[in-house]
UniProtKB/TrEMBL annotation:
Keywords: Signal. This is OBAP family protein. The keyword Signal applies. Residues 240-265 are annotated as: Disordered. Residues 1-21 form the signal peptide. Pfam families: DUF1264. It comes from the Bacteria. Coiled coil: none annotated. PANTHER family: OIL BODY-ASSOCIATED PROTEIN 1B, PTHR31360. It comes from Leclercia adecarboxylata. InterPro entries: OBAP-like (IPR010686). Residues 252-265 have a biased composition (Polar residues).
Length: 265
């Protein structure tokens, strides 16, 4: 999608749109930033360049849940860089203010690339068709015409998401090991209270967005995605010790690159 920012000029406005209304919900330990550190920070901002950060061109807001725990749901603020026509990458935060916590990353690929993946790899990826068509994935601040163009690009893509700070459970510091996240695929899965709170803060109407996207073409979900729907629930597990975010009867991929398969349900 290298041409995306050129074909949708409004994306460049996202730097100043749809932000500063979703702060993190819990304090973190530590002393207040010193005057010396603030001075160093200001100097670095003026002197140093940040090409990877400056390449971020879109802001998306949606929802994730833990693979193996559909009740472990949270809002996820994505800041997206378009690498080419088939690959995007996003840094994910728990809010859209300057002090938001970095929760993790998501890699987004086209259906064409997803279909080239081996079967075990496909199990780590989730589809975006429902998220786009339902209106639960939004681009805050983007005009409707640009929103539809962007979502028409995203609707048939696939994402692999790892959260490294589980801010719904570990409020103060990033504890434990990364967790694989999934996306919702049907009605009745997403907590309506989460959705209503998001819509209130962002000043949007998910149902109206859904109606506006009715004519976006979503192809059938490619075989192999959304492994949780088939009972293949995947999370990391330490070879020794504890700290993993296990959720019920899960399939664990160990750091030894060996996996234990839980019976499908």
């Amino acid at each position: 999608m290298k041409s995306l920012p050129l074909t949708i000029p409004a994306l460049v406005l996202l730097v100043g749109c749809g932000a500063n209304n979703s702060p993190p919900q819990a304090p973190i330990p530590g002393e207040s930033t010193s005057a010396k550190m603030r001075t160093l920070e200001t100097g670095a901002q003026v002197i140093q360049s940040r090409p990877p950060v400056e390449a971020i061109s879109a802001y998306l807001d949606g929802f994730h849940f833990y693979s193996g725990d559909k009740n472990g749901q949270m809002e996820a603020h994505h800041y997206v860089t378009v690498l080419n026509e088939d690959v995007m990458q996003a840094v994910i935060y728990d809010g859209n203010t300057k002090d938001a916590r970095l929760m993790g990353v998501e890699y987004i690929i086209s259906e064409r690339l997803f279909n080239t993946l081996p079967p075990e790899e496909k199990k780590l990826w989730h589809s975006h068709q429902y998220e786009v068509k339902s209106g639960s994935l939004v681009a805050p601040g983007l005009p409707a015409v640009a929103d539809k163009a962007l979502m028409s690009k995203i609707v048939n893509t696939y994402g692999k998401t790892w959260h490294t700070w589980h801010t719904d459970r570990d409020k103060t510091l990033p504890l434990g090991i990364p967790a694989l996240m999934m996306g919702f695929t049907g009605e009745g899965q997403l907590d309506p209270a989460l959705l209503a709170d998001r819509d209130r803060r962002l000043g949007i109407d998910t149902q109206e967005i859904k109606r506006q996207r009715a004519d976006i073409v979503a192809r059938p979900v490619a075989s192999g995605a959304n492994a949780w729907e088939r009972g293949e629930l995947i999370q990391l597990k330490r070879v020794q010790g504890s700290g993993e975010h296990g959720h019920g009867d899960t399939t664990h991929f160990g750091t030894s690159e060996q996996s234990q398969q839980a019976p499908s349900r």
